[in-house]
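User: quick one - fold this with 3-isopropylmalic acid bound?
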Amino acid sequence: MRVCVLRGDGIGPEVVESALEVLKKVCQIFNFDLELVEGIIGGQSIDKFGEPITEETLKLCKSSNAVLLGAVGGPKWDDLPTDRRPEKGLLRIRKELNLFANLRPVKVFEGLISSSPLKEEVVRGTDLVVVRELSSGIYYGEPRGIFTKNGIKYGINTMYYSEEEIRRVVRVAFKLAQRRRKKLTSVDKANVLEVSKLWRDVVNSERENFKDVEVEHLYVDNCSMQLIRRPSSFDVIVTGNIFGDILSDEAGVISGSLGMLPSASVGERYALYEPVHGSAPDIAGKGIANPIGTILSVALMMEYSFGFEPAKKLIEDAVDETLKEGYRTPDIYSRGDKEVGTKEMTQKILQKVEKLING
Ligand code: IPM
Ligand code: MN
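Assistant: Sure. Structure tokens for the protein plus 3-isopropylmalic acid:
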């Protein structure tokens, strides 16, 4: 298995380093072949090559079975025009590798329940996955741009989906729901947008193929409210690119720390794994970033790219045990916990992996 490593900007390199230690350990335990190649993306790439991603890096990604990414962006590059910003590197990878389904699981860890901004009784038991369409929609639709007509400036973006683009991501979500609690919430704005009307029609036509899955349709504004009111009632949520971007941040905060959340972006051929959090430039280089989001992204890699669920479970259990013992990075620390930095947290998790295997 060949994994392309893109450390990126801010805390990206630190959290990727931690996740790589876990990846190597698990591959060693289960006798998986692992070859690592390194590419450059984001601000790093802008500084070195003048563009957020190079053909070279894209080629490396395409020659690998999976990509592990840290984070991109930072204040240094904030004033660049949209198509030259670090984020553009990420958007290009998603498009070029055809990563059309972005899976963002949100699970409330019992030990961290008090760091959720919501009441304990509301969040307890929350275990959901946002499936976000990632390679089309308003992020990529044409026409787009800023233009001037009769001396007045206009900005334009286009929300655009083909039936096929909707169908393929909806199928991923249905299949996932079948392996979970068999409940699918499709989110749109079908009371206003035609593109959402088509979305809803496609979901309804696919229902025929997944009769064991219960389907609910919610408008995006209502869904954002229900997520706060009854997060534990959701199982799989499927939605378009921009609604999914917004809802997954909202869902993410429910768990108590964005730093804990992993994601997988999958297509027919390639897959990319990255934490949900960003590059957090304010704490970069301080050794205090929470590595768990990236470590759990490696767990998802074990499931989807290596196709080996026991390895995923091993990593998740090791993280669980470490949290149960009270170890916390500052973002999830509260009084009485044992405060640790990135490296120490990683060592604790590695020790747990070891212990779970050897007893
Ligand atoms: C995300 C991020 C990206 C997005 C940005 C960095 C382009 O917010 O992965 O959710 O909007 O997709
Ligand atoms: Mn986002």
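One thing worth noting: The pocket of 3-isopropylmalic acid (ligand 1) is lined by residues 87, 90-91, 245 (CB under 6 Å).
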